[in-house]
Amino acid sequence: GLTVCTSPTDFRQSKDVKAISVHPINSFFYFGKLGFLPNEYDNQHHPRSYCTTPACMRASARMLTFIDLASDPCEDFYQFTCGSFLKSAQIPIDKHQMSAIVEMQDDVLILLKNVLQEPIVEGELEAVKKSKLFYKSCMHGDYIDEMVNFEEGALPLLKILSDSESVTGIPKIGQWPILIGELWDESTALPLHDLVGNLLSLGTPTLFELLIGNQGNGSFLHLYKVEPPLFKEWYEDLWPTLDSQPSFNNPFLDILTDIQHLDVNGTGVFDSNGMYDYIIPGYVDYPEVILKRKKKEVEPYSFAASNFHPKARKSDSDQTDRAKNRKNMKAYKHLIEETLLFLSKGRRDLLGDVEELLLFEAHLAKLHHDFCPDSEFEHIDLGDSDSGQDDAEVNSTVKDLVLMLPTFEWELFITNLLKNSSSQSRLKLKDNILEIPVSLQCKEYFIAVFELISRTQKRTVYNYLIWRFIYNHLQSLGPRLRELWSSFKLMSVYLKDDSFHLARWKHCTARTNEFFGSVMAHMLLKHDRRYEMKNQVTHLIHEIRRSFESFLWEQDWIEPEMKEKLIEKVVLMGNEVAYPEKIFNITALEEDYSKVYIEEENFFFNVLRLHTRFASSNIFKMDVTPARKRDWEIVPFTVDAYHIPASNEVILPIGILREPFFHLDYPSFLTYPSLGVVIGHETIHGFDEHGRRFDGYGNHSSWWSESMMEPFREKVSCFVKQYSQFNIEDTGFKNDGNVTVGENLCDNGGLALAYRAYDLHRLQEPQLKLPGLSNFSDDQLFFIKFGQ
Fold first, then answer.
1. Burial code of 145-173, b = ≥16 C-beta within 10 A, e = fewer?
2. Phi and psi of 147, rounded to 5°?
3. How far apart are CA 163 and CA 188, in angstroms?
4. Which of 88, 472, 518, 663 is surrounded by the most beta carbons within 10 Å?
5. Looking at the DSSP assignment, which residues form a beta bridge with residue 578?
6. Helix (H, G, I), strand (E, B) or coil at 288
7. Can you give the C-alpha Rg of the chain in angstroms?
8. Which residues are listed as membrane-spanning (predicted)?
9. How does the average pLDDT of the chain come out, rounded?
């Protein structure tokens, strides 16, 4: 992820923290305090020319528009670089921030929209025609008058929720119990493994997400936790009521009060340490799955919310937050109820199940909070850092899942997924399903969730699962359901899903790019300078990597053997720039979309068919193709950058290779502090708390020596302390440096590497001045550009 100048939700500094941008960092990276020098002459005292290309003129105007010359950069560098931006920037109603990234995203959407709105012409690729039809079907929803034509607005969803009707190319999910009341018959409902699998194929992970992981030269199934759709705080007021609910009467949860670890030597009695080895009921065929808890702790499992927040809070802020959370939860319940009333044409007698649905959802949120408390990759454990439960370590097989979680039909679940994919993948694995390697995240969470499901009414479970599907696709349905979603989202713009667009054309363009990303790149990337751009960015990557190598050699706290291993990983690190060459392979592009059927006037069905098609493609990747040889997993016109630990590579989509981050005509003092920092940031991710667990070939490995880990943790703790001094503006809270330290390391490290590389590069080429900014030195322009 990228961190940029943002308004207004920035982490502003407390008074005792100096400007980070020019502060010598006494930690993993270091850059010196910069002098303020005249800029009229270069290092050889030759008069300097101005850069007058259109790109330089735009860059100069942007910098002058954002900068606050009345501020002292040595007192508040943020205010100096971004002060005028803070005064003038307007945050759109459907966003919670405005930044360079948001501006670039909007620019990309406009670019894509202009292409999609062009008429279909004879001779175009079928894939191009389908992308335009898909966009048109999305925009068509604006013209449905549901007051007159209810069927056109709701019928597509009702067909999917029907037992009697089927839609070509879309797997069944069956009836929504809450919608048909007492008519629902659980004996005719899909088995749980089929429902979960079909929902997964339709773009809705419910109990868990399943991805194809790549590690070294092999593939594995990666199962990881899926949180309920809202922030955990929203459920707080529901947690204390869970113990008293009959549907959630679960004695198994008493055992989970203090899970220590899974143990294989249990005897079923208290041992000498006061621990009880408890074999989980129903798991007699797998005695290795044993939970340990202290003998004295025999009280019921508590759902009290008092221990939810790990950070100290002010009492008044706590009360304010609780009031907001209650308001948000009320709005969420209203969304469910209004959706149900619309689909049932006003049957209020069906609302009785909503409370049970919410309680089940709250229960899942509580289990997630208790057993998987940390964010997936950002939290740094300064203790035993190899004990993290969120790493993609291949630690199980499908056979282990069958034994550990016997209430779910894992073998049938995976077999059905493979049946829906290509025959090649099915042939390779059909006789060896149980031996497929699996990475299972948060084992205790999975055990608790499936035990909870086994003790909960099937009607409640299915209500929740199918609601997750409806919730996930409200934006793809008719105007009334979209209006309900928009009203809810506008009130709660901090929802985890930040892809919300109020303007229909933005939503339709973003969805088209999501499913037809390679086609969009094919349509747009026809200019003559694309290879020049790739070459220039690739050269910049190599310069940043070389600066990292030289930095590593200089560190006296790293032993020589580890320096060689670290540098080997840097050398082996791959990079994908701009777009995959496949987008110019017409045969491959047409084949990718050959089996996709697009209806001009049914956007919802189109979305579901495309989800199913890509789910099938994902399962097809269960082979032994090396990770680096696989297709891109990233849409080219994505405004972001990525580090992929399991393949040890950095991906820079063409979406990020745009102004103000990059232009072919930029002088180096504009390129290095923007795109150069991004490259450095993603490179450092290969050596942060998560990335360091993978070697240069993408294999999960504990390859760092303990003698290096000790000083590394010490230096990381310096970042934790420094960033814990930041106030989060308008909240009354301080930043939790333990949570943000992963990104803090990469931001500071990326800046340090970019400046080192720039300092060497500028000696090799004449430096130009920018119009209107000639009073600033190159170094000053470098950091102003970075600050913005």
1. ebeeebebbbbbbbbbbbeeeebeebbbb
2. -65, -30
3. 9
4. 518
5. 653
6. coil
7. 28
8. none
9. 78
